[in-house]
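Tutorial, part two.
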Amino acid sequence: MRAIVDPTNALDRGLAAIRQQFQVPGSFPPDVLAAAEAAARRPPTEHVDRTDERFVTLDPASSTDLDQAFAIERSGNDLLLHYAIADVAWFVDDGGPVDAEAWRRGTTIYLPDGKAGLYPPILSEGAASLLPGGPRPAVIFTVRVDSDGEVRLDGAERAIVRNAAKLAYDSAEPAELPPDFGELAQRIAAAEARRGAARVDPPEQEVVPLGEGRYELAFRPMTRCEQSNAALSLAANMAIADALIEHHTGLFRVMGEPDKRAIRRLRHTAKALGVDWPQQMTLDAYERTLDHRDPKQAAFMLAIRRAGPPAAYMPFTEGVKPWHSAMAASYAHATAPLRRLADRYVVQATLAVANGRAVPETVTQAFPKLPQVMARADARSAQVQRAAVDLAETVMLHGHEGESFSSVVTDIDERGARIQLCSRPVVARVDAQGVQAGEDLQVRLVSADPDRRELRFARA
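Running the prediction step on this input gives:
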């Protein structure tokens, strides 16, 4: 994608407007900061010492809110994933100021120029983060992965761990990772293929600051190392989901499949982007063939993600099996408690059931309330991210008014025709009179207004 030159600082103004419009939280209230500072000094007293095990973290190089550290060992033909998760619950008192603020926020919100954290930085980027150096309290989930990639939760414990190396996706060397890191990821991928899972992680569309008022609208594809790391979280979250279902409790991530209308729209999007989707091939099968390093296929992967129904949270319901269509399995969120409120409660429930204890009442009471809270937080986060991309698109196209672009009509609804530009990963609207879905359409850019984050096209 071309760089965005922004001499009028439209992005800065626009990002400030986005924060105001969507009420993105700013700094934390004084009572929350004071409670977090006190909690950061809390010594761990219910944790076994596992500092002799070599745990490492694997994240973007700039990350400081580290949720997960891992170690892997062999057990016969099985692999044991020891997944250390930040013990956020140790630092957050139920009903206290930090907890109340986390319920108001729900998730960490990311913007091109910074983030609005779920917890104060003294916890999320300090005492609770699994940073290298000093020991940190964690909850270790031990997940058994057999030769076929099937997973089972073998145990969970509170422990003190030491991060031996803060590794980055784009620079980690194989020798720095556990020897069976790649093998574990391959087993999980093979199991997904047998289940017919459609979990294909698209690249993130992001606004990248280049300095001196310049930005770039780009796709950030997942590195191979990042994809393998995602398999660790998948293994843990699936094993945790099964354990919670067995004990008739929990909170699960669920998602349905794209409907027929969405599939038709995706067919037209594929045509617009110039990607070859054979007519006889299902979406699930085709999705697994896509290469995120190809810009056109990356754009189509993003379109697939946007086409399906949004994922949601569901508490355990007797007689109803929670199902995530992209995973083709039951699935929970437990591995990012520094960034998602719900994970803290899933971690606590899993710690209890794995050790034969009753799930704390505060956790069981939270499960029915969390779906609505997380839906609101997820919606706001998605709106903020979409608004940031819309802003970048208008800044990028500002000054190109009057130019013509090739597009394809992907679908038509009460708001007009939705079009996909052929030369850029931009979706827009145009007058629908006399056009049909799938039709090639030449459009002219009428206006690109960064202040309103609005693109207007007319049929050329």
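The longest helix spans residues 370-397. In part three we will examine how such features are distributed along the chain.
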